[in-house]
Amino acid sequence: MHHPLLDLLTDAAEGRFPAVDGGVTVLPPLAGGWECSVAFTGHAVIATARSADEVLQQRPDGFGASMAPDFLRWLAGPKGFIGVIDAMLYTRGTGSSSLPLRTDADDHPRVKYARQYRSDVRVYGDERGLVTIGAGLAGRRELSVEADTHNRGHGTSLIKEAIGLVPEGELLFAAVSPGNARSLRAFLSLGFTPIGSEALIRPA
Question: Which homologous superfamily does the CATH classification assign to the domain defined by 88-194?
């Protein structure tokens, strides 16, 4: 089912951002029991099964309060899952890659992790590491990379190959921890653009 958050993500990637008004947009929950808090510049979007009135009574705002630990814990409930706060990046596919499809990596931790959060995950890779591409937040096409850390530069080359797995001009998103500076620099160097931040929530 199409989720309205996907339209907001696509619009942001095309330069059409929500109003910078400090406001909060409350949307229905995501598929599979997931919820989220997304922050753009000056505007927050929260997908949840809770009512808009309940959410707004907690006083989140578009200037950072929607990502405050206390608010995220309230959203998840006392025993719910709160994901890390990631930078949200996007680029467009180039339609050219030689990275082979992998069917032998189902037990790899990166693949298992990807399939916890995404559907229709496909795995590619070679001696440099693995790439997963699947339907992630709100159904967007989403990338993750697991590179061989013994060789510097493998992560960057894998990201470049992954961009080529997507048809030319089509959107590709990635969620990167701001503290993983090496990874963030690699994504930015290859043309990924930050458009906001996100935290996945799964109430108990």
Answer: Gcn5-related N-acetyltransferase (GNAT) (3.40.630.30)
